[in-house]
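As a warm-up, study this chain.
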Amino acid sequence: MTSTETEKKRSTFPTVIVLVAIVIVVLLTCVPYLTTIALAEEAAERATTDASPIFGVTLPPGYEQWELIAPAEEAAPLDELRAVVGNQTAIDAYQAGKLPFPDGTILVKRAWKRKQSPDFASATVPGAATTVQVMVKDSQRYAATGGWGFGRFVNGKPVDEAQHRTCFACHEARVKNRDYVFTRLAP
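Now compare it with the structure written out below.
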């Protein structure tokens, strides 16, 4: 190897190291940013697929721990036990006897198949979960449906659009004078 070739290799070596360092810095800078974008897109897609058709209502986080408003029993053919729970806005409105409900009120009806208790013959206990139904009060967003958005979910997924089209009509026909809400606070 000639001295010119040796000098050329020596001068190329620092250039390669600088280029490698630049690539590493770019990767370390961009990868977290690109990962954040990918995760945000995935979350947005999941939220869209988990939202009810028409209304865009989703299952509210933590609703399983919300305070009970009232239990209910649905006779045949559904044969369900139900529990209606609400967020703090709903609880405060119920306790104050406030109608119409304020914006931000969220009501969740949880339902289970009714079954006989294996331990006490005359008792009925919850069996398999059937549906979770959600009402969200937002007077501006849901002005066309009395200020309420609706969601009905089976196994955590929203049911089809046809079923959601029946929500408001049923509430409007039966409980329009109670701000479209069937459930009354249990004594």
